[in-house]
């Protein structure tokens, strides 16, 4: 049975979840995602019984409202999605833009879910005013309501009564973490805040983020950070400072979709950084050997 994922999301780590979960320590009190997005790691962790309690946070309040509805009132959002999805037939493009306008006026989660399911390449885009401005994928209707409903119900079953949902700056969430938690962070890639992603609008200052990591180290809070990567010879993101003493792990994320469009066979590698306190809790050599000798368990297909 596949892990449910009701929110399609460009940059989601759902295809890398099996690799990432290998670095989880035993006996996690809570898993905390300060940049939740599609919450793919929380969902995978619940699916594989890696954690019993969860905290997800995202600065995008309509997104966290959507998560709250999916988890705590699933049948409501299923019915709303079905009704909105059915209304597009015969007038798909104009209808999409109408829903987009309604969302920008009301910020209602049911409209956001339809836009996420229908927009181009699941690539969420906001303008400087915070309005959703991505275009529709004209080749498809968006995810079928039956499949969407099944995934919503399964996610609700996995996370209901086990999760707290917040919409605040990531630093607020990190301030509440303890040494018994595990923090998984997948912040917007450097350079994406101004032009794409769930709109942090450049507010994730590199220096402030590094200061937050230093504080986590000081408190011995274990964390995993997805931060940069490379495709071919092109590297993304500024290097993290050596003073953090992080362990760098490269993960094969499969063939780059952009390279495929350009008829190049380039593989994308995404990078995990493991905190010192996390490395002290796991048998890193054993995990690395497992991935080396059983690569089919961790293969990602682009």
Describe the structure.
The structure is a single chain. By secondary structure, the chain is of the alpha/beta class. The protein has two domains: 171 residues, Rossmann fold (3-Layer(aba) Sandwich), CATH 3.40.50; 80 residues, Adenine-specific Methyltransferase, domain 2 (Orthogonal Bundle), CATH 1.10.1020.10. The protein is 38% helix and 15% strand. It is built from twelve helices and eight strands. Strands 1, 2, 3, 4, 5, 6, 7 and 8 form an eight-stranded mixed beta sheet that branches. Strand 1, helix 2 and strand 2 form a beta-alpha-beta unit. Helix 3 crosses helix 4. The radius of gyration is 19 Å and the shape is globular. The C terminus is likely disordered.
């Amino acid at each position: 049975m596949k892990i449910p994922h009701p929110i399609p999301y460009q940059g989601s780590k759902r295809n890398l979840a099996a690799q990432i979960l290998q670095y989880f320590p035993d006996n996690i009190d809570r898993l905390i995602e300060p940049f939740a997005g599609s919450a793919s790691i929380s969902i995978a962790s619940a699916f594989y019984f890696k954690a019993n309690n969860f905290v997800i946070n995202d600065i995008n309040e309509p997104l966290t409202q959507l998560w709250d509805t999916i988890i705590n009132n699933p049948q409501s959002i299923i019915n709303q999605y079905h009704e909105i999805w059915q209304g597009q037939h015969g007038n798909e493009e104009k209808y999409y833009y109408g829903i987009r306008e309604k969302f920008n006026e009301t910020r209602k989660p049911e409209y956001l879910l339809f836009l996420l399911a229908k927009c181009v390449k699941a690539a969420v885009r906001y303008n400087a005013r915070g309005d959703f401005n991505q275009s529709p994928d004209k080749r498809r209707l968006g995810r079928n309501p039956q499949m969407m409903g099944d995934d919503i119900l399964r996610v609700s079953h996995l996370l209901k009564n086990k999760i707290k949902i917040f919409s605040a700056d990531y630093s607020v969430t990190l301030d509440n973490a303890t040494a018994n938690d595990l923090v998984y962070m997948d912040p917007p890639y450097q350079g994406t805040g101004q032009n794409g992603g769930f709109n942090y609008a450049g507010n994730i200052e590199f220096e402030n983020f590094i200061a937050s990591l230093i504080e986590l180290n000081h408190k011995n809070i274990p964390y995993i950070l997805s931060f940069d990567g490379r495709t071919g010879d092109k590297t993304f993101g500024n290097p993290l400072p050596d003073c953090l003493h992080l362990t760098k792990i490269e993960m094969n994320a499969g063939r780059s979709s952009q390279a495929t469009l350009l008829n190049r066979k380039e593989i994308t590698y995404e990078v995990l950084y493991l905190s010192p306190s996390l490395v002290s809790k796991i048998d890193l050599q054993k995990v690395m050997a497992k991935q080396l000798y059983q690569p089919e368990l961790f293969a990602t297909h682009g």
